[in-house]
Amino acid sequence: MSNDTAPRPPAPEAPKSNQPKLEPVSFSDLPSWDTDDHLAALKTFLKSCDAVARMAGKSVSGKALSQCHVPVGELASTCRAAQDLKSLTKAKAKAFFETHFTPHRVVQTKSAGLLTGYYEPVLEGSRTRQGKFQTPVYKRPTDLTNVVDEADRASKQTGFTHLRKTSTGETSPYPTRAEIEQGALAGKGLELLYLEDPVEVFFMHIQGSGRIHLTDGSSVRINYDGKNGYPYTSIGRYLIDNNILPAHKMSMQALGKWLREDKARGQQIMWQNKSFIFFREIGDTDGPVGAMSVPLTPGRSLAVDTGFHTLGTPIYLSVPALSHATKGKGFNRLMVAQDVGSAIKGPERGDIYFGSGASAGKIAGTTRHQGNFFVLLPTVTQAAGSGIRFGEHLKWHTTVKAAQ
């Protein structure tokens, strides 16, 4: 249980329609807001600022980067204010967020959202097929084309996100996971690296990145670089729905153990997920990069559905039962939306990045908890109406509050 003593906001009334909306609250309504590390959150926010500026420039050209109502230009303005700050301190960081943002809780028919976790696997591998390293990791094929923007792929509920495009301009579906693992891409020179365990490779596809220690003693990071276009299917959910594994025992560790117990059986189950990920080498950087092409920050970067949230937006999470990641306390923390995921769909659906290696993987693999979003929007006044519905395009008037 959480040890929080901060007051909790009253349970929001469900919206009259099925459409989620945002309602303004005060910072005092955010559980444990005063005790969070606002400086760590601000440093994470600053990582996104150059990317937000580029997004704002693109949105002027007419193509919206998401269906969310949050004006990217307003977010870019707060970024410039953050970049102008000198000699950063925790107090200044807290004052910055309270001055330039207004928290809004998500109001929907569900009482709580769902938070999961992800991480960067650290594995051994080889640049050539040798010995125990027999499972290939593929780079992006040259004939793969995007149907939707990469940042919005999770928002596409049906149909393909990527297709194969021929030299004549015709498109067709790419091979499925099963077809690729049975040789559909063999002989095309797409093998980037070779790893040992097919199950670890499968999990790396889900995580979207990996740090690989190579046989020559060097290390390299690889990152998501497109997919074959099929919707993501959770094989954990498949096993639960078919009464093969009970829900209360499901974790990434338990799933991995089950898949390895019978390789042929495990392969057939992994093939239930037709989605297949391609990777690129990004060198030995500060960390894996998310959808904004900036290094992710452990415990501060959040993957969201860009159908509801603009990348770069600060989002305060309240996840009372998530105690294994916080030494017995609930998880109440200001995050920054910096990534997306094919399984992350909904206004209060998030994936918390926990870092690299086995310890981060253990935390991520056992994270599946109910929680709530408090979206920090640039401090603005809406002309009419107390509720802001996702997807609305409204007129905003900027107001700046004095720091408390």
* Low-confidence residue ranges: 1-7, 60-67, 381-386, 393-404
How many helices? The count is 9
Average predicted local confidence, pLDDT: 86
Q: Strand order, biggest sheet? A: 3-16-13-15-14-17
Structural class: alpha+beta
Question: What's the helical proportion of residues?
Answer: 10-25%
Intertermini distance = 32 Å
Instruction: Report the sheet with the most strands, covering strand number, pairing sense and barrel closure.
Output: 6 strands, mixed, barrel
Commentary on this structure:
The protein has 404 residues and is an alpha+beta fold. It is built from nine helices and 20 strands. It has a six-stranded mixed beta barrel, surrounded by four helices. Strand 10 and strand 11 form a beta hairpin. Helix 1 packs across helix 3. The radius of gyration is 22 Å and the shape is globular. It starts with 20 loop residues before the first strand and ends in a 6-residue tail after the last strand. The N terminus and C terminus are likely disordered.
